[in-house]
Amino acid sequence: MKEKGYKIKKYDCPVKRYCQTMDLKDNQELIAKYKECHSKTNSWPKVREEIRSIGILEMEIYIERNHLFMIIETPLDFDWDVAMKQLASLPLQIEWEKYVSRFQKCTSNSTSAEKWKLMERMFYLYD
Q1: Buried residues in 28-46 as b, exposed as e (16+ CB within 10 A)
Q2: Number of domains in the chain
Q3: 125 in a domain, yes or no?
Q4: Is residue 113 part of a domain?
Q5: pLDDT recorded at residue 18
Q6: First vs last Cα of the chain: how many Å apart?
Q7: Sign of CA dihedral 57, 111, 31, 66
Q8: Which domain does 43 fall in, by range?
């Protein structure tokens, strides 16, 4: 439940975080199907493996109406540009991106890096 907050994973190494945003088509039926295809039982396990294979430790997607917010955690030496090029070349990832594009405000042949827009951190509370 969102009011109780979400536990975060602890790692044995320092990590950095990337935040991205994207909009879905503003259609409640499509949004429900998008959420369903990302559930533990319906998401593609091999796609999860491919995402981890490029060095991503954790990925979370949050939703408010048709607005998505993604948090990605990686080791400090992670190179975003190199990893996104590698991800875009993985066969199952290409298939997944095409499959989910019907729910998203994008073209069907867009890569993950083209769909999701990196966000700039403008505030943080810790020192």
Answers
A1: eeebeebeeeeeeeeeeee
A2: 1
A3: no
A4: yes
A5: 98
A6: 29
A7: positive
A8: 13-118
Residue 1 has pLDDT above 80, yes or no: no
Distance CA 26, CA 108 (A): 17
Rounded to an integer, the average pLDDT of 7-20 is: 93
Domain CATH for 97 = 3.30.70.100
Cα-based distances in Å from 118 to 22, 61, 114 = 9, 13, 10
pTM recorded for the entire structure: 0.90
Residue type, 52: R
Q: How many CB atoms lie within 10 A of CB 122?
A: 5
The closest of 55, 56, 69 to 24, measured between CA atoms, is 69
pLDDT in tens, 48-100: 999 999 999 999 999 999 999 999 999 999 999 999 999 999 999 999 999 99
Residue 124 lies in a domain: no
Q: b/e per residue, 83-98, with b = 16+ CB within 10 A?
A: bbeebbebeebbebbe
User: Is 8 domain-assigned?
Assistant: no
- Average confidence (pLDDT) over 2-16: 90
